[in-house]
């Protein structure tokens, strides 16, 4: 099941430029407030948080990441008032593309 | 090809009455059923802190969310610890805390004589044993159509277990009584929160109405053993009849407060609201559980002839009065027998209905009624976070009688 990818996810992966990936990594590791990396592991972004689920193990698709950012499942904060929709889309596409430890 | 999650949801929507399995190429109906019910082989390893769980019985959604596969729930009332679900909001603390469980300290506030007590001291104050249903608020999220964020639990984020510990009332009495004006019992979890995040954003701190002071126990024992780290040991707050999140693990502070906790998990989290709305303190909190039941056997297929349909039923804070079973998608119902032992109002009750069914496909489901006459709902209206799907329509199983 690890290979399963939504078509949208593949599109997003293909669409991300190097620049966009840098912006996504910056959000994830320091700017998101609180940064994703405080709680989550994502090797490609050198995120090593262990408080919440490991994104490398979960391997979420972009829609799952977007929903989590908007809803804040469990104790995860909601990011709807912390990030722009564009920033959330970028993070979602990036995580979907790189989760699992591989390089994009 | 779609993701497995999409497959599962499609099947379960189908299980409510409309067969859709055939619309997705490459997967047979049985494979769908097995995935939906959770009988397929495990694919993700168990996390270290729960490595002692029985792998074939568990669906590993994430390392913090492990579900019991539906047919593994038996008829002995109590769910064995090694197949009990796990839902941790945060990474558990270091296992050293359960190695010296008696030394764990809890701060009591909002009482006449506030002080910190160890588990060792609490064990001197009194003992009560209470079987309760522990059920995650999100149990059944995978049965809703809207793709709410979080683990898509089916039926297996629930289990009936036996707790032993000190009644909170005994502790309060020993500390001179509750301070004037207190309206809530506010319990704080002992998870370690890293730098770089405002503690209130992720702190596990839940408030419940103070009326529960006479039923809450502070448990150090579960199913006859010290509470394992995965389930909140050394000490866990048990609020009988309340959703899992209120049963705070690794409790380090118990306060009688005038207001509910300021933590997000209380203010905006675990609030029931329509799809698309943000959480807010004026919405209902996930406190008391609803009347609910589901069939645990058969769930996929069974030989024709005599069939013992069995399952579990509970009523939140009320005992179960009766359970009915339907084998025709809710068109007709037959009263099931409630099995002994009756472990009390907060436990679940196993039920059984013997039937004889000729070969064919049947939509089998159950409907419980509690002692107050509350009947399990037919369908559960969507709520934003996908909390507690209790409707007997989608809790039905589609069973092939061979």
Strand and helix layout:
The complex is a heterodimer of chains A (104) and B (402).
Chain A: H1 7-15, H2 18-31, H3 36-39, E1 41-42, E2 47-48, H4 55-58, H5 62-71, H6 85-98
Antiparallel strand pairs in A: 1-2
Chain B: H1 4-15, H2 29-37, E1 58-62, E2 65-68, E3 86-87, H3 96-99, E4 105-109, E5 115-118, H4 119-122, E6 128-135, E7 158-167, H5 168-174, E8 184-189, H6 199-202, E9 205-209, E10 217-222, E11 225-226, E12 236-238, E13 251-257, H7 264-267, E14 292-297, E15 301-302, E16 305-314, E17 320-326, E18 334-335, E19 337-338, E20 349-357, E21 360-370, E22 397-401
Helix pairs in contact in B: 1-2
Domain Oxidoreductase molybdopterin-binding (chain B): 99-262
Cofactor (chain B): Mo-molybdopterin
Pfam families (chain B): Mo-co_dimer, Oxidored_molyb
What does this structure look like?
The complex is a heterodimer of chains A (104) and B (402). In chain A, strands 1-2 form a two-stranded antiparallel sheet. Chain A has helices spanning 7-15, 18-31, 36-39, 55-58, 62-71, 85-98; strands at 41-42, 47-48. By secondary structure, chain A is mainly α. With 402 residues, chain B is mostly beta strands. In chain B, the strands form five sheets. In chain B, strands 5-4-13-8-9 form a five-stranded mixed β-sheet. In chain B, strands 6, 7, 10, 11 and 12 form a five-stranded antiparallel β-sheet that branches. In chain B, strands 15-22-21-17-18 form a five-stranded mixed β-sheet, with no helix packed on it. In chain B, strand 1 and strand 2 form a beta hairpin. In chain B, helix 1 crosses helix 2. Chains A and B meet through helix 5 of A and loops of B.
């Amino acid at each position: 099941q690890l290979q399963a990818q939504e078509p949208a996810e593949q599109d997003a992966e293909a669409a991300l430029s190097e620049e966009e990936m840098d912006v996504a990594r910056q959000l994830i590791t320091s700017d998101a407030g609180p940064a994703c990396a405080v709680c989550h592991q994502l090797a490609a972004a050198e995120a090593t948080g262990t408080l919440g689920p490991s994104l490398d193990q979960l391997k979420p698709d972009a829609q799952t990441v977007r929903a989590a950012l908007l809803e804040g499942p469990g104790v995860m904060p909601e990011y709807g008032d912390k990030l722009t929709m564009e920033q959330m889309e970028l993070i979602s596409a990036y995580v979907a593309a790189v989760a699992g430890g591989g390089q994009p | 090809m779609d993701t497995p999650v999409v497959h599962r949801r499609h099947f379960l929507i189908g299980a409510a009455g409309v067969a859709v399995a055939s619309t997705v190429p490459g997967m047979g109906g049985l494979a769908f059923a097995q995935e939906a019910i959770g009988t397929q082989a495990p694919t993700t390893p168990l996390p270290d802190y729960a490595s002692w769980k029985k792998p074939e019985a568990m669906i590993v959604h994430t390392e913090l969310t492990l579900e019991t596969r539906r047919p593994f729930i038996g008829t002995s009332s109590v769910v064995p610890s090694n197949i009990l679900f796990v839902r941790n909001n945060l990474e558990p603390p270091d296992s050293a805390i359960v190695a010296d469980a008696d030394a764990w300290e809890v701060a009591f506030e909002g009482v006449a004589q506030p002080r910190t007590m160890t588990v060792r001291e609490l064990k001197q104050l009194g003992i009560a044993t209470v079987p309760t249903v522990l059920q995650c608020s999100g149990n059944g999220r995978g049965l809703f159509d809207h793709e709410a964020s979080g683990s898509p639990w089916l039926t297996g984020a629930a289990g009936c277990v036996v707790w032993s510990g000190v009644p909170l009332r005994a502790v309060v009495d020993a500390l001179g009584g509750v301070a004037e004006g207190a309206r809530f019992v506010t319990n704080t979890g002992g998870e370690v929160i890293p730098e770089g995040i405002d503690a209130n954003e992720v702190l596990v701190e839940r408030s419940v109405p103070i009326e529960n002071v006479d039923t809450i126990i502070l448990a150090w024992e579960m199913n006859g053993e010290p509470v394992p780290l995965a389930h909140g040991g050394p000490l866990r707050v048990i609020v009988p009849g309340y959703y899992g999140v209120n049963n705070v693990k690794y409790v380090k502070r118990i306060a009688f407060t005038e207001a509910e906790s300021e933590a997000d998990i209380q203010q905006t989290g675990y609030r029931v609201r329509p799809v698309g709305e943000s959480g807010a303190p004026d919405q209902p909190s996930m406190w008391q559980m609803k009347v609910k039941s589901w069939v645990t056997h058969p769930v996929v297929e069974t030989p024709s002839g005599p069939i013992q349909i069995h399952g579990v039923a509970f009523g939140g804070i009320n005992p179960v009065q009766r359970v009915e079973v339907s084998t025709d998608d809710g068109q007709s119902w037959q009263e099931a027998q409630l099995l002994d032992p009756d472990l009390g109002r907060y436990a679940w009750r196993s039920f059984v209905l013997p039937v004889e069914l000729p070969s064919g496909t049947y939509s089998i489901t159950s409907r419980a009624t509690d002692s107050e006459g509350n009947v399990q709902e037919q369908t559960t209206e969507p709520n934003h976070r996908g909390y507690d799907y209790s409707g007997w329509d989608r809790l039905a199983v589609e069973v092939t009688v061979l």
